[in-house]
Write a structure and sequence with these properties.
Number of helices: 17
Structural class: alpha/beta
Order of helices and strands: HHHHEHEHHEHHEHEEHHHHHEEHEEEHEE
Oligomer: single chain
CATH architecture of the largest domain: 3-Layer(aba) Sandwich
Radius of gyration: 22 Å
Shape: globular
Bound molecules: uracil
Distance between the termini: 38 Å
Low-confidence stretches: none
């Protein structure tokens, strides 16, 4: 077997055997295969795809390049949620403590923001002192003691994925369904969980822009997870406008705290509750969706979910002052208000444009090495469908970068379209895959 022939086989649209995938992918993880050969292979996979069997084998091999955590000694059902990424998507910060307060263990391994889409780790690290790099021992102990922890991918979790993802990012091969599937699931399978709920985004601010492509990704993820023995359900949810009002790390953390206090925006809570309910159903702690919703609403109303969030922050070294008094958080040097140019209904708030604007304001990364200004971001004052009067505030920008304000405010103003007629609003939840399994 050699790498050249494996690459040529996929280039010619033929199926790779498990042994061939293992030879080249594990060889790469062990530094025996050079970057240029894996770049060629990932481009061949991007162009010619992989069937479910190949995708499941790739997932398993990437998983076995590292460790698999084992929570068998911790009683109770362990579940996680993963989103394919969006703008204003702070669901994990609300879901993890709420689901844990309802009795499901949540060992969550999250990612960082890149490009227009944000990441849970950055939002948590916006809380001064918060550590997302717990040791595996600390992670286990926290799951045992408080039932929930949120950390980043460790060195020992799917190292083949770490190497390949960095390469894909630089070689325009991220948007491939088998590669995304194997990348996400190798990390999720390594968590040693009993069930997984996926939030596959669709629309202007998502990886997959159409419901058809999103459905393809959802089916690939669910089927591949199940082939690897992990019960999984996926919801396809709309990501045309940002979720909630806040976009930018600290602004989103602050909005999540408001949600946990029971004052969350309707769209954000709809998606968060729908995903959380599936976790409770999979865990068997609720028998129906209605019962799951009641338990989750009780976790919020009783203060148990907020308390669980405070427990997470405290255990992971974060300063609770800002959770109890968000108004004490440092302020951006510049604030700029965008006004409605005329009366009318908001027809569009383009999530991709808002995400890009936040990166320019300092709140995101163009490349992984970029530093983030946690304070920077955009606070929307309206949602699609709202009526606004001329001169009303549409959004406020927060930044320390004076030089970008003019350009960013112009692109944001263009991203918010106002027209005479009220738009039709589609349900945020498009469909679900995998519940029958
Ligand atoms: N997120 C991942 O972890 N991997 C991908 O390939 C795409 C998104």
């Amino acid at each position: 077997m050699n790498a050249y022939h494996i690459i040529a086989k996929k280039r010619d649209g033929r199926r790779l055997s498990e042994e061939e995938i293992e030879y080249i992918v594990l060889g790469y993880a062990q530094n025996k295969i050079p970057d240029y050969q894996i770049s060629a292979l990932t481009m061949a996979i991007y162009l010619n795809g992989m069937d479910f069997g190949e995708t499941a084998a790739l997932t398993r091999i990437m998983l076995d390049s590292g460790i698999r955590m084992n929570f068998e000694a911790v009683p109770g059902f362990k579940a996680d949620k993963h989103s394919t990424g969006g703008v204003g998507d702070k669901v994990s910060l609300i879901l993890a403590p709420m689901v844990a307060a309802a009795g499901v263990k949540v060992p969550m391994i999250s990612g960082r923001g890149l490009g227009h889409s944000g990441g849970t780790l950055d939002k948590l690290e916006a809380i001064p002192g918060f550590r997302t790099n717990l040791s595996e021992d600390e992670f286990y102990r926290q799951i045992e003691e408080i039932g929930v922890s949120l950390i980043g991918q460790t060195e020992r979790i799917a190292p083949a994925d770490r190497k390949m993802y960095a390469l894909r990012d630089a070689t325009a091969t991220v948007e491939s369904i088998p590669l995304i599937t194997a990348s996400i699931l190798s990390k999720k399978l390594a968590e040693g969980i009993d069930g997984l709920v996926l939030d596959v985004k669709t629309g202007k601010g998502a990886f997959m822009k159409t419901p058809e492509r999103s459905r393809e990704l959802a089916e690939s993820l669910v089927k591949t997870a199940q082939l690897n023995g992990l019960p999984t359900r996926a919801l396809i949810t709309r990501m045309d406008e940002p979720l909630g009002f806040a976009v930018g790390n600290w602004l989103e953390t602050k909005e999540s705290i408001e949600c946990l206090r029971g004052h969350g925006p309707e769209d954000l809570m709809r998606v968060t509750l729908a995903l959380s309910a599936q976790m409770l159903l999979m865990a068997g702690v609720a028998d129906s969706e209605q019962q799951a919703m009641q338990q989750l609403n009780r976790a919020i109303a009783s203060g148990a979910a907020l308390q669980k969030f405070c427990d997470i922050v405290e255990r992971q070294g974060g300063d609770l002052t800002y959770i109890h008094h968000p108004e004490r958080y440092p302020k951006s040097r510049f604030e700029y208000r965008i006004e409605a140019p005329r009366d009318g209904y908001i027809n569009e708030i383009n999530a991709l444009d808002v995400g890009v604007a936040v990166v320019q304001l300092g709140g995101g990364r163009q490349v992984m090495e970029d530093q983030i200004d946690y304070k920077a971001g955009v606070m929307l004052h309206h949602k699609v469908g709202d009526f606004v009067a001329k001169g009303e505030t549409l959004a406020v920008l927060y930044t320390d970068r004076q030089t970008v304000i003019e350009a960013v405010s112009a692109s944001l103003a263009a991203a918010i379209r106002i027209s005479e007629h009220a738009p039709n609003k589609d349900d945020l939840i498009v469909e679900m895959t995998g519940a029958e399994s």
